[in-house]
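Kindly draft a sequence, keeping tokens residue-aligned:
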Amino acid sequence: MTETVRKPTEDRAQPTTPPVAAAPSSSTGTAAFGGSRRVPAPVNEPVKAYAPGSPEKAEVKARLKQMAAEVVEIPLVIGGREVRTGDLGTTVIPHDHGHTVAR
């Protein structure tokens, strides 16, 4: 059995891909970088244990105590602009409704 290969005609146009724009050339006239790139290996920050009595845990507890002592004002944001009306509500810590953290 033989296959018949048809040539494209104008009434049966073959799909074409649009031409790819060349990368902007530099002052040396090269269009793209053809070398190999050396990307440094990612380095994660050290994992802290936060064990009882560790300096990390003491630092976190001190910051939480400091933040609990602050009362911040949260403005309305309307259309991307902060609006302060003076009519304030309160925001409390969920586990301690008597403790106001924001107005």
